[in-house]
Amino acid sequence: MSTATAPVTTTVTSTLLDFHDVEMTFPDGTVALRGVHLTVDRGEFVSVVGPSGCGKSTLLRIASGLEHASDGTAQVDASRIGYVFQDATLLPWRSVRDNVELLAELGGRSKEERRAKADRAIELVGLTGFEKHLPKQLSGGMRMRTSLARSLTLDPELFLFDEPFGALDEITRERLNDELLRLFVEQRFAGLFITHSVSEAVYLSTKVVVMSGRPGTVVRSFDVPFPMTRDMPRDPDIRFTPEFAELVGEVSRALREGHR
Ligand SMILES: Nc1ncnc2c1ncn2[C@@H]1O[C@H](COP(=O)(O)OP(=O)(O)OP(=O)(O)O)[C@@H](O)[C@H]1O
Predict the structure, then answer these.
(1) Can you identify the CATH homologous superfamily of domain 1-80+156-260?
(2) In this predicted complex, what is the ipTM?
(3) Ligand 1 center to 58 CA (angstroms)
(4) I need a surface site. Which of 36, 43, 102, 237 has the fewest CB within 10 A?
């Protein structure tokens, strides 16, 4: 077991995230990740699917700098990183606007600046008119939009998503998938997205990465060929085409094989 830590380092390239042979062994001896190779370039939206406990969240925590890999190199060339969790993690006593302003407030921005940033982000996620609502007055989807807006105030170059829509119903999830795609093409961040849903991964992404069971490693990577443009991020009807079903089938098969 290696005990050295490999900190996230920074260089200037079009690759925003470059993991090379990353291993993560926790102090109790649990080997969560082994030999992980993964890159996320500017303009890419990469989804990661893998069995429960294979180290997906650990991967994101290393990417964000919250955790250090115990071996290998985890290089991140993004000074502004957004992070959205499965839980919206809103402060219940603060309004939508005050929650969205939080990161700019912690960053020491002036009141006018953070108000302007928050209002723009609230508009981007379609919550204009709900600025004064408290989290308990919002639906699950609206809470997640608020969480997205809070991270958008950072103008992230790299956006990390830890299964953000997993707790939402199918219709809300599909709607938020489309919202996220629109934000991706408009705001031009790169994305690293964890999900348990293979069809969500294929629909949202430019690339889908399949991980094995723990210790997690990347077993397959699939380029997603469906077009994505500023005017039409991705045609929702793509989900009903044989090509989409075929790719979902291939990813699912790789997931099953990697799980054995
Ligand atoms: N701080 C820690 N100390 C020890 N073991 C840990 C720690 N954090 C995570 N683990 C273990 O590492 C493995 C990977 O955990 P992780 O949460 O990254 O998996 P995951 O793929 O995100 O799981 P899920 O899909 O169920 O959310 C698990 O076996 C987990 O129990």
Answers:
(1) P-loop containing nucleotide triphosphate hydrolases (3.40.50.300)
(2) 0.97
(3) 6
(4) 237
What does the block give as tokens for 148? 């997205």
- Tell me: the pLDDT tens digits for 145-184? 999 999 999 889 999 999 988 888 888 888 889 988 988 9
Burial degree of 90 (CB within 10 A; 0-12, 13-18, 19+): buried
Atom of ligand 1 nearest to the CA of 30: 5
Q: For the chain, what are the domain ranges?
A: 1-80+156-260, 88-155
Specify the pLDDT at position 48: 97
- Rounded Cα distance between 120 and 126, Å, is 10
- C-alpha 31/C-alpha 2 separation (Å) is 10
**pTM of the full structure:** 0.89
154: DSSP letter: T
Residue for token digits 């981007």?
124
Q: How many residues does the chain have?
A: 260
| C-alpha to C-alpha distance for 191 and 125, rounded to whole angstroms | 17
